[in-house]
Structure to design on (490 residues):
């Protein structure tokens, strides 16, 4: 079969020229999903190219994705990334991946043994917000999470990322090996600190002596990661086949923009990712907050309201001036004032750049995809800024409308009466609340009382209940599009 590995590629495809032979699997990555392929894997590949370094990645999927791992192996672990700008497409080949594992294909012990190999210096993660098994509002380990309960009962055969990291570190300690850095690349506020807290709490429950060792030896840098990488579609794969002249089932398409700000806190080595545009800084938190509130917050607004208004993609919402203005207003009037940025940061320029990125007509980013897992995303995207406005006594109607949009969306029925496929770890509970009330604003206080999404100081605040109820009622009476029109003209 013709694959990316055995077939000469057209000259316009950017291919690394360094030799793969010297690469070592010094990074083990958990979560070989869309984002990692277009971000960390490509950064690492380009770093090897520029620096002559030997950073190889062992890719692991813990939940699902067996077919992708098999496909990756069939093409010697190379894959393509299409950068799709508004005015053209550029294909890149990534060859920094050295090997791959999956507990279902290779057994859990192969995964743990790999992580315990002496050359491993970094274990990185893109396991989605829910993969950390934390209470989204507090950022603390949720010991009632069924996956965590199962791992706590059977810590030698863990299934969660947290359980696997602790077990692998235990093996390293027993073998007299040093620790690795644990680097989260998920959209969670203070992702390093949250991962550290969850790992330590889990460790103290299964092996108290490990808690101390991890605290003393492992580092958990925070990262701000950014590149819009929509889930792959049949059209994307067809375009990749057309460009490469052969199929690449592991290929992915994304926007040309990328950003990566990393806390420079690595216990062993790390690639010089800064040689290809990443930034190492002492404190990532302001950048994380900026990105989560302005980008991800406006994304969630556009996802819920846009889906309800009948827009399939983010770029479609940008064709509607009311939506474009509402996204900009949300960023500049609701989110930007809540941020404390280093001097010289131009948040208006950042907001305008985000609108340009969203408008890219060649990137088909579904509102449905972003709407997924809202219960895990709302706290870091809307909760912090909402708290800020409550303290200031300032207007937060854009945030209230986003939350009302989410409440209307999780009812599972759209404005035309068609079913919405709501994908969320809390979907059953959310649906039950919605069904009990019907389309009635009486559901607002009950949904706001879910403390894992809305801590009591937010969810029980009368001003929040009133503003979200008003926006929800408007969605019922006038629909999402008219609600957005009125939001920008009021
Ligand atoms: P994806 O659906 O393509 O991949 C999800 C990955 O997470 C898969 O490898 C899957 O095996 C793993 N996973 C899912 N649930 C898990 C669990 N409970 N435990 C362990 N692993 C689990 O999604 P994609 O696009 O790769 O995004 C993943 C995450 O990356 C996002 O949730 C976000 O935090 C971050 N991210 C994504 C961006 C994007 O535009 N796609 C951009 C910036 C960050
Ligand atoms: C999106 C993000 O799916 C979502 O929730 O908001 O994945 C977004 O595309 C990225 O964070 C951009 O860096």
């Amino acid at each position: 079969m013709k694959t990316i590995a055995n077939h000469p590629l057209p000259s316009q495809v950017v291919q690394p020229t360094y030799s793969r032979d010297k690469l070592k699997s010094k990074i083990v990555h958990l979560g070989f999903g869309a984002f990692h392929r277009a971000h960390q894997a490509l950064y690492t590949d380009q770093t090897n190219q520029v620096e002559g370094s030997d950073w190889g990645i062992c890719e692991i999927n813990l939940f699902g994705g067996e077919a992708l791992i098999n496909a990756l192996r069939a093409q010697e672990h190379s894959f393509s990334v299409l950068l799709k700008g508004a005015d053209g497409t550029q294909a890149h080949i990534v060859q920094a991946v050295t090997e791959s594992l999956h507990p279902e294909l290779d057994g859990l012990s192969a995964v743990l043994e790999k992580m315990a190999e002496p050359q491993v210096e970094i274990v990185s993660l893109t396991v989605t917000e829910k993969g950390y098994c934390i209470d989204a509002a507090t950022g603390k380990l949720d010991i009632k999470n069924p996956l965590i309960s199962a791992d706590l009962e059977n810590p030698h055969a863990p299934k969660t990322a947290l359980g696997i990291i602790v077990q692998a570190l235990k093996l390293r300690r027993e073998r007299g090996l040093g620790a690795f850095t644990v680097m989260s690349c998920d959209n969670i506020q203070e992702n390093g600190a949250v991962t550290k807290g969850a790992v330590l709490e889990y460790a103290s429950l299964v092996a108290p002596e490990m808690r101390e060792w991890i605290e003393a030896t492992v580092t958990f840098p925070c990262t701000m990661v950014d590149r819009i990488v929509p889930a792959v579609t049949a059209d994307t794969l067809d375009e990749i086949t057309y460009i490469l002249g052969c199929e690449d089932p592991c290929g992915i398409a994304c926007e040309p923009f990328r950003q990566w700000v990393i806390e420079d806190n690595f216990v062993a080595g790390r690639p010089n990712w800064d040689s290809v545009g990443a930034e190492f800084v002492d404190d990532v938190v302001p950048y994380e907050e900026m990105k989560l509130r302005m980008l991800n917050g406006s994304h969630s607004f556009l996802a819920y309201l846009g889906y309800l208004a009948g827009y399939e993609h983010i770029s479609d919402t940008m064709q509607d001036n009311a939506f474009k203005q509402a996204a900009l207003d949300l960023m500049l009037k609701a989110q930007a004032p809540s941020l404390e940025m280093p001097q010289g940061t131009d948040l208006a320029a950042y907001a305008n750049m985000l609108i340009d990125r969203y408008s890219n007509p060649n990137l088909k980013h579904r509102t449905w995809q972003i709407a997924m897992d809202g219960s895990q995303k709302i706290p870091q995207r809307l909760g912090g800024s909402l708290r800020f406005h409550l303290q200031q006594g300032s207007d937060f109607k854009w945030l209230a409308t986003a939350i009302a949009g989410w409440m209307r969306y999780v009812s599972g029925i759209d404005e035309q009466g068609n079913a919405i496929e709501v994908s969320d770890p809390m979907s059953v509970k959310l649906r039950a609340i919605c069904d009990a009330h019907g389309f009635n604003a009486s559901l607002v206080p009950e949904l706001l009382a879910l403390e894992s999404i809305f801590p009591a100081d937010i969810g029980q605040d009368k001003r929040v209940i009133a503003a979200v109820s008003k926006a929800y009622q408007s969605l019922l009476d006038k629909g999402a599009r008219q609600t957005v029109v009125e939001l920008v003209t009021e």
Observations:
- The radius of gyration is 23 Å.
- The first strand starts at residue 24 and ends at 30.
